[in-house]
Amino acid sequence: MKCILCGGNTVCTFVGMNGYVEGTKYDVYECSNCLSSSVYPISDLRLKEEYDTIYGADNAEKTGYYSYYYYLAHGVKKLKNPLTDMVNYSAIFWGVGKALGDNGIKKGQSILEVGSGLGYFTYALNKAGYMCDGLDYSLEAVQFAKEFFGGNYVQGTIEEFSKKNKNTYDAIIAMEVIEHVVDPNIFIEECLEVLKPGGKLIITTPIKDIHPRGTIWETNPAPIHLWWFTEKGMESIAKRLNVKISFVDFTDYTTSKIWKIHTGVANVPPNQGPVLRKDRSLVCAKKKGYKEMVMGMIPAWLYIKIVCVYHDLKFLQRNKTPSRYMYGMCAVLSKP
Questions:
Q1: What is the pLDDT of residues 251-303, one digit of tens each?
Q2: What's 229's DSSP letter?
């Protein structure tokens, strides 16, 4: 098969990787040119069936995998300056904050968060003075965001949204979304349609470049993630669409914060197993670590504050080599 990102030839690197839902299997393919990886088969019908199992309303708050996001949402709402705390809380949020600042996106300008989920980052941006709307495919997530945070949250896909909202926003933020979509080219093209001329599309996604060559699949199991991108893969999409692209440099973050990157091992079969049965029950509950135990004992806003303080502890930053990479890339595409 040809890589739809760069046109290079793809090679199957693993057959029959276990999916997130019990009984599902996916093959893993890697592009010999851009080295990005994807899973097969990818079909909208199959994805809908599995997503209904994973994201069902009666399941979302019950599984350990997603209950964290509800916990985070409750904490964000009680923070006085949620955007400031979120930028300090996570490298991904830090990258987005840096992208906004470096690209001149000022308070008062319009932003669309694509894949806004439960709505807490859209809420944080609005509290900070931006004019932000949220868009998400999940009706349950949008209903929660509207009821819990208020504001403008819309259910739907970017393809649907772009038909009525062309040239509308100064910036679009899509955090950890593009690895979920069937065709990243179409996703980025539709996002660009919604931007004003000169607007910025900020995309975060797990990065493959930090892992040893030959690592097969060191990201979430399919269909949670369908793609695993390299910077070259993202550059190929930008070249195809004739737009400029740059990447946030995380050197400042890795110089001043506590951080850890887990890397995979080359030529080792993916070890993710099924997490959910088709009746939405857990195959095996994840054992609680110290983080989960702490989260169970204190309110979410306090947990966020504690993590922020921990990240800034200077005496724990010894023997850390600064790097421009983190566990996720933050790409910025500029609409002509």
A1: 999 998 988 888 999 999 987 777 777 777 777 666 777 888 888 899 999 99
A2: B
Q: If phi over 0 gives left and psi between -120 and 50 gives alpha, with beta otherwise, what is residue 111?
A: beta
Q: Decide if 214 contacts 267 (C-beta within 8 A).
A: yes
DSSP single-letter state for residue 182: S
Give domain 10-334's CATH architecture. Answer: 3-Layer(aba) Sandwich (3.40)
Query: Is this structure's pTM higher than 0.70?
Result: yes
As a whole number of angstroms, the distance between CA 169 and CA 122 comes to: 14
DSSP states of 113-129? EET-TTSHHHHHHHHTT
Which backbone phi and psi does 282 adopt, to 5 degrees? -75, 135
Q: From CA 1, how far away is CA 76, in angstroms rounded?
A: 44
C-alpha distances in Å from residue 106, one per residue of 76, 111, 121, 127: 22, 10, 16, 13
Q: Residue with structure tokens 């983190």?
A: 326
Do residues 8 and 37 lie in contact, with contact meaning Cβ atoms separated by under 8 Å? no
Q: At what angle do helices 139-149 and 120-127 cross, to 10 degrees?
A: 30
Q: What type of residue sits at position 297?
A: M
**What is the C-alpha separation between 201 and 183, in angstroms, rounded?**
17
Alpha-carbon distance of 227 to 38, in angstroms, equals: 4
Whole-angstrom distance, CA of residue 74 vs CA of residue 149: 10
Report d(CA 257, CA 88) in Å as an integer. Answer: 9
The DSSP secondary structure of 43-86, one letter per residue, reads: -HHHHHHHHHHHH-TTTTTTSHHHHHHHHHHHHHHT-SSHHHHH
Contact by Cβ (8 Å): 54, 276 = yes
Neighbours of 3 (CB within 10 A): 21
Structure tokens at 170: 């100064």
Provide the edge-to-edge strand list for the sheet that holds 37-40: 10-18, 25-31, 37-40, 227-228
Helix (H, G, I), strand (E, B) or coil at 271: coil
pLDDT at 46: 64
Query: Rounded to whole angstroms, how far apart are CA atoms 321 and 283?
Result: 39
